[in-house]
Amino acid sequence: MKSEIRSQKSEARNQMSSALCCLSSVVCLLAMLLGGGSCEQMPRLSEPATETDNDFERLSVYSHFAPAKISIMPLTEFISSNDARQANPVRSKSSTSNGANINLYVSLMDSFGSQIKSPCVFRFELYQKVQRSAEPKGKRVIIWPDVDLTDPVANDEYWRDFLRAYEFNLPFESAANQSYILQVTCLCPTGRRLSDEFALKLTK
Fold first, then answer.
1. pLDDT in tens, the chain (204 residues)
2. Are the C-beta atoms of residues 150 and 70 closer than 8 Å to each other?
3. Which residues contact 188 (CB under 8 A, 6 or more apart)?
4. What is the pLDDT of residues 125-165, one digit of tens each?
5. What is the 3-state secondary structure (H, E, C) of 48-72?
6. I want to staple 69 with a disulfide (CB 3.0 to 4.6 A). Which of 6, 32, 109, 141 is the partner?
């Protein structure tokens, strides 16, 4: 009788153990289906930054080194056509081989105030200077063709490393003793427009 009771108890324990194993297997299977991993809880790793986020961060860093200011250097002046032949001329439909030329030096600066070299497009305009006026920039006399310096070879052609600036030669004919305002606009690859003005007087 006792041996029969022991046998029944042993069989009940075996059944309970089997039931627990089955339940554990079911729980583990559910965990794998829902969590996509093992039944053990693993700490979640932070998701890696997407490529778009990385590109935005890189662009944000480079933006500090993009042109933030343009300056016409004091070396800019009227010179004779003969002296300007060695410089890079910016052709104009209305310009001729005679008369004066504007030897122009332009400096680009980043947000830290350092002079830099950058791909861009330059635009040059010359205005009459109105004396004793709150708005000295009068009628526009001439606009030269845009100079595209987005190509590295063209950019280097106009770059003067010893000055950390660009040099341009603008052919122009004018009567003597005339005052003008030269306006230079820089069209940056970022879409930003930078400009500066410089007063010039032609004397002969």
1. 545 555 555 665 666 666 555 566 655 566 666 655 554 554 555 555 566 666 656 656 777 789 999 999 999 999 876 665 555 667 544 444 456 899 999 999 999 999 999 999 999 999 999 988 888 899 999 999 999 999 999 999 999 999 999 999 999 887 678 899 999 999 998 899 999 999 998 876
2. no
3. 66, 67, 118, 120, 194
4. 999 999 888 888 999 999 999 999 999 999 999 999 999 99
5. CCCHHHHHHHHHHHHHHHCCCEEEE
6. 109
CATH topology of domain 66-202: Immunoglobulin-like (2.60.40)
- How, if at all, do strands 159-160 and 147-148 pair? unpaired
User: How many CB atoms sit inside 10 A of residue 89's CB?
Assistant: 16
What token pair was written down for 60?
A: 């944000």
Q: State residue 13's pLDDT score.
A: 65
Q: Where are the domains of the chain?
A: 1-33, 66-202
Residues 156 and 159: their CA atoms lie apart, in Å, by 5
**Amino acid identity at 144:** W
